[in-house]
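Handout, section 4.2: multi-component inputs.
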Amino acid sequence: MVLQSSLKNCFQLFSILRTPKVGFRSTTSGGLIIQSISNDVYQNLAVEDWIHDHMNLENRQVLFLWRNSPAVVIGRHQNECNLRLLRQKNIKLARRRSGGGTVYHDLGNINLTFFTTRKKYERMENLKLVVKALKALRPQLDVHVTDRYDILLDRQYKISGTAAKLGRTTAYHHCTLLCNADKFVLTSVLKSPYKGLKSNATPSVPASVKNLFDEDPSLTCEMLLDAIAEEYATQHQIDHRIALINPADETVLPGINNKTKELQAWEWVYGKTPKFSISTRFNMIYKDSVLDVKVDMDVKHGRIEVCNIDLPEQWLPPALCSELVKSLTGSKFCPNEITALATTLLRVCPQDDEFHSRWNLLCENMIMLM
Amino acid sequence: VCIHRVRSCSSIRFIKSKYVCVFDKSSLKFSHQQRLFRTSAVSHGQIVQFKLSDIGEGITEVTVKEWYIKEGDSVSQFDSICEVQSDKASVTITSRYDGIIRKLHYNLDDIAYVGKPLVDIEIDASKGLAPEEDVVETPPMSHEEHTHQEIKGHKTLATPAVRRLAMENNIKLSEVVGTGKDNRILKEDILNYLAKQTGAILPPSPKAEIIPPLPKSETVPAAPKDKAHKIPVPVSRPIVFSGKDKTEPVTGFHKAMVKTMSAALKIPHFGYCDEIDLTQLVQLREELKPLAQIRGVKLSFMPFFIKAASLGLLQYPILNASLDENCQNVTYKASHNIGVAMDTEQGLIVPNVKNVQVCSVFEIASELNRLQSLGSAGQLGTNDLTGGTFTLSNIGTIGGTYTKPVILPPEVAIGALGKIQVLPRFNRKGEVFKAQIMNVSWSADHRIIDGATMARFSNLWKSYLENPASMLLDLK
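Output:
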């Protein structure tokens, strides 16, 4: 777990790929620029955690560059996004450990994480560095940093979002930069489909976004990454070459795979959802009639704490309806879980087809809520 | 502990009175320092208000988002206390002291102010110090961060007790993987490291040189000999295991399973097992696999087992029936909706293939593919999971030979298939040959199904599978 040797590994790998003359002196103080070879959002978030937990940043600053295949990343204390759409489009859902809102990542979006000691945590400086790099690359770009730590293009379009995590001795500030992301998917997945949802979660501030590519089609993600790395190297007076890092390599990053698993666990992604309540009415069509159903639920830590279903009288035997409600209480707020639960419960209910079809209809509608 | 010292003092007094004064003084010194380190809960330590320290960037207020501790919990220095959020930054606040949390000044989602008290901590010595800790030598916990060392530029977190243990065993903390909070190195980690080094579980003793007490008669002449023959004897101390039981409520899907299985218990099960020679079927499947592949379907053995079961059910429809709650009526189900037990993240779920009686083996295979991919994506719908009339469980893919499957109400029978093994068997000529043998274990509801019926069904199913060509005769 000695970091010097792991840095050496990085550079050895790197030196095979690029320049054979990379010296090690440049790594002992000042800074380090690393880029992930993986596009897996969980692995990359795990690298952030790893650096935050294990690296000594007393005399060193680190810039971590990464990109993800399509994923929605929610802030630590956030809870809104369109889950059904995510599942349909096979977009991964991850929760990061820093605060802030929900963002959509794909390969047209680059992520930058600035690691420093807690004392040297300074978001404005980092964002100004990014703006400087952009201007050096394309002087005609109208980009600037706002008070809310956003980067705006043409004074109105958000091209970067920011979030940060402060630990006891280290801190990191990460931000995104929209180069050529799928804006259509972005706006649709970030919308919450729930009407009647109340919670204390960090509210998401909607913004109009634009890709840098829209402004200047000659720009690519690689160009942006290189420009920012160049500027960082200049400002910190360090070697401008980027070391490649493999987020699955336990020898370089011992314990990293455990961190990746933690980030993928249901308990972290869904279980950390701040408390919210749903209060909704919907119509069910059964044979020739339309039924009005009212559902109220309180969900805490991803589990249903309180559940209330109001059905037209005697449509389902009340004893069985309350059995369903009792089983739902304490269950995970997850369509998978509810489907398995409801179908299993059905085995111990009276076996008549009419009842079964009513039960299934109700359960399907409940699941649609999730 | 103080009392103990006094007693030992007094006993020593009887033997060597001239040393009394020395012991008296030292005992006084010990007890004074010990008072600071008493571990009983009754004692009142000093209550310190831990204030929310500066977050940086001129921030004065934050929102409390998560508490990691509650009142009454004990904390160590550097343990995480809470998570606060300010303007897109999530900050972990860690404890500066060892002690017990006595008061939380904020609730979740309250605004907390920098410089104002966050929690009250009762300062106390860290609990759970094993007896070998020499209390006198350990300095009182200071509030600075000097206790974390930097070894080769790498930060390691460990309490002084753990550091001593490492030092005494000549272990470099940088080589130990910490498993505590924030990757802190715990005593267990040192012990594990030691165990790996020596290949054995060692008692957690320092390399103390302890001379066993000698009988008095040998004291004088044996003294120089003692020094030559000093053998370090490890003192065996109890290994401290700090794991705790964890209780969680049974909820959701598991609760539903409890209900179902409890209902299943009411069914009087009887079992019937047999062994099937799948040699011919294995060969047949090898031939058919590429054909199915061309049509985009993965062909396993299950479609054959399922179809053979359906053919059997046509002859013995009582196995595809359902008994009502009062055991008054038996309903013979027309459709053969054969369930296939699937192991998913949730646990055991049983989607079923509908109307197997009118499906071809290929259609069953393709339906199974669909159910399997939905199952692994966690997207099975209610229709796929309800309406089953008979179940097959292929536990053999995981392992096992004979099992005792539990009938899933409202069904009356279930079959569990073990793994396929290559075993020596005798053929008709009396020669030994390599046979592909699989075991099947049936369970049936003895209230309406008798052993003979089950046996005949099983024999028929077996004959279809042992001689797949015979299935052709009865396929509809």
